[in-house]
Amino acid sequence: MKDSDDFDPQLLELRRGTIVLACLHLLRHAGYGYGLLEDLARHGFAADANTLYPLLRRLEKQGYLTSEWNTEESRPRKFYLTSAAGLRLADTLTTEWAALTEAIASLTHGRTE
Amino acid sequence: MTATLTDRYISATVRTLPQDAQADVRAELSAAIADDIEARLEQGEVRQDAERAVLTALGDPDVLAASYADRPLQLIGPRYYLTWWRLLKLLWTIAPVTAVVGVLIAQLIADAPIAETIGVLLSVAIGTIVHVGFWTTLVFIILERTGADTGERWTLDALPEPQETGAGRGDLIASLAFLGLAAGALLWDRSIGFVLVAENGVDIGVGLGSQTTAMPVLNSELWPWWPGGMLILIAFEAALAIAVYARHGWTTGFAWLNTVLAVVFSTVILYLLITSQLFNPEFVDYTLGRGNVPPEVGRILAILLGAGVVGVSLWNAIDGWLKSRRSVAH
Predict the structure, then answer these.
(1) Which of B17, B43, B187, B196 is the most exposed place for a label (fewest CB within 10 A)?
(2) CB contact under 8 A, B36 and A53
(3) Tens of pLDDT along A54-67?
(4) Chain B, nearest residue to A57 by Cα
(5) What is the CATH number of the domain that holds A39?
(6) So where does this one cross the membrane (chain B) (predicted)?
(7) Range of the domain at A85
(8) Interface membership of A97 toward B (CB under 8 Å)
(9) 3-state DSSP call for residue B197?
């Protein structure tokens, strides 16, 4: 119990930034706020609504997402879609993530050998 | 019809957002909240509980609004904190002292009552500290919100210089030379006199000594005890300088001795000054006693001299403590 309390800040630190990457990937197909929150949870990303919604607007402002209001359904929703710049950013971040995974693996291998 | 909790929550959030973003955030947020509540209703929750749970999870609307608008939730953030703190420390060491000393001298010259002087000094000191703190901080709060650049970049040149411990050979020689000069001046003034007085103009064709008479600056009635005491103080100062050199640094004991010497020195000078015993009456007559010198001048000069003596002694005492602290740190 004690451990998990102490580790929480470190885990948060490590996870910071992964939500952006996950959103850019998931929004290759247009999605809206609450639906994206559920998708993230399903893929194992624990995001809070109050950080995700402002984050989407920020990414849109930076040009990595585009948005469009869909008023066809009973409830009007704002749909986001990853832009071309967003796709390039997602590629770069994914490559970096893979490199980090390899680096971490080399650390743990080095210890067991 | 009364507003629902959701309406009130959304209004509280968009209230502080920029005008052009308000409608958009309002529509998006209400859709998201409605989606969330609906999902909970499908799980079998009661509408009222579901709404409360969703809004509670979203948290303080002001925090949410700050997140939407990218507003800082701190007065002064890490980007400006050190610049702010360094500047404030610098201003706090300069401004209050300068203000207090200036006002003190003005009050003494105006011969204000002592109680009034103390009150004025206190309010000036507190006022300066508060004003410097407030206005400096206000400027940095504005900087934090406008994102302006302070132009401060750290480079290697900003590293603190290795500080003098005041225990080197140069320090010893300087101290002893100065003390020797002071002792010599005391004796010279006693036996010959510092001020040369010419009776009827100076003829540049003749030597200065033959047409002038020398006049001591200090009151000769003080001898032997007062100047003798001064010579003893000078001897103590010299012994202290040698001890500091021998011990390769200042100690707390040295700093105490130095403080006591400074206090004794300034007390003696102030006492003699206030009781009008310090200067040779002849010399005072000759300089300030002339008809065209207003009587106020003597008093003002005495105040400035007294302030100077106290200032130098105070700095001397503080300097000893600073050096002893540095020596301990070494």
Answers:
(1) B43
(2) no
(3) 999 999 999 999 99
(4) B68
(5) 1.10.10.10
(6) 90-109, 121-143, 172-188, 225-246, 253-279, 299-318
(7) 2-112
(8) no
(9) strand
